[in-house]
Amino acid sequence: MIIERQAVGQFLKNGFVVGCDSSREAVLIDPGDEVRGLLAFAERQELSIRYILLTHAHVDHVTGVAAAKRALGVPIYLHRDDLFLYEQAVESGVMFGMRVEPPPPVDAYYEPGQVIPFGACEVRPHHTPGHCPGGVCLQIGRQGEQGRELFVGDTLFAGSIGRTDLPGGDYDTLIGSIRNVLFAFGDEAAVHPGHGPDTTIGRERRTNPFLIG
To answer: At what angle do helices 35-44 and 65-72 cross, to 10 degrees?
Structure first.
């Protein structure tokens, strides 16, 4: 599996291209200000991006969606509980002194038990509210195998957790999502957060000060 992470700009928000190394099909996750770099990487690697997948709809995670949709013409996926945030992207950008291009309409909403295939790989979305109402973890792996690559948005970070003081956030809900959903993937699962370095479930379960005890 091919995983490319890039982060630029004032938010240093991680965006990802995840590709199947056999078929060269791929998905684009949370395109923000780094979208041009991610699209250039996909072109250099001859990857065909099938979907734009959003872990949630806070403005730093969607500033590149319009450009990505224009370049790729592929479906945009979001959890419907974050639609209100997605539709407020332009106004949210103004609060940070940014001009945000209005994101195009969402093409599909994640559903329980859904499987999104690309090449020999697949994405399984899992609802993880708390940082925001429609946060999801995107579990990616080879078809027929237990996916061990978790793209968690801003739910969990290396040594920290997502903030819960924004509209729709709730601390107890967030902790429940981490303990009941993310921890269930096992200690060896890789965690790719929306900000900062990668980590593992085991490392966070053992050392994250918000989760010990």
So the answer is: 30
Alpha carbon distances (Å) from 116 to 79, 99, 124, 125, 137: 14, 32, 6, 8, 13
Percent of the chain whose predicted confidence (pLDDT) is above 90: 91
Is residue 101 within 8 Å of residue 94, measured between CB atoms?
no
Rounded CA-CA distance 189/146 in Å is: 10
Task: Output the CA torsion sign for 69, 65, 196, 12.
Answer: positive
- pLDDT of residue 213 exceeding 80, the answer is no
189 three-class SS:
coil
- What gap in Å lies between CA 99 and CA 190, rounded to an integer? 34
Per-residue confidence (pLDDT) for residue 165, from 0 to 100: 94
Grade residue 98 by pLDDT with cuts at 50, 70 and 90.
confident
- φ, ψ for residue 26 (rounded to 5)? -150, 170
Sign of the dihedral through C-alpha 4, 188, 157, 80: positive
Q: How confident is the model at residue 90 (pLDDT cuts 50, 70, 90)?
A: confident
